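Bit of a strange request maybe. I'm writing a small parser for structure token strings and I need a real example to test against, not something I typed by hand. Could someone generate the tokens for this chain?
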Amino acid sequence: MASTTPVSATAVSATAMSAWVRARGGEYLHGQVMTIAPVVGQPEAVVFYGGAEAVYRHYRPTLRLLGCQSRLVSDDPGRPALYGMAVHGIMWGALNGFLHASALLSSEGVEVTRFLHHAGVSVGSVFGLLPSIADEIDRGEHAAPYGALRHHLPAVRDLVEESRARRIDDELPGYTLALTSEAIDYGHGDDSYSRLVEHFRAAGRR
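Reply from user aminoacidic:
Good idea to test on real output. This should exercise your parser:
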């Protein structure tokens, strides 16, 4: 018996479902849908799968009908859900930053679409940094020849000040200021922004 379920779930619930299926002599393949409903079945649709490779290969022709960008990411059925949560976290973080920026621009009567026309390359370059940040995190090495946290600090302070001056909610940049200042106080001023991953790791141990 094999069970394939493309759904949205947490890693814990996907792992529990797999254990339930396996206890009954079956194999479980979890699929985490990463596409809005109208795109499901289109070539660009993405589903992350986790579970037995044999099950994935057996059902792959059918699963590809859901989206050609689908892939088996691990034999752990909980891993696709973790991938999904990571993508969502990046998405919401980016969207909140964009909405804060939009409020800031709108306070001066600047059209957000016009801003993107002028600054699209700069905004896009932010996501271009992710591979190098990921590499630093994986290696556990954060020293930076440029773009160190101490260089970020003045700009973050300016963003908080600008937000307050325009009566824009400063909680988001204020949080960034607190993270950056804390890391510098701990002696990490010459490290890259990737160093702040330690704050999020430590929060779970407090």
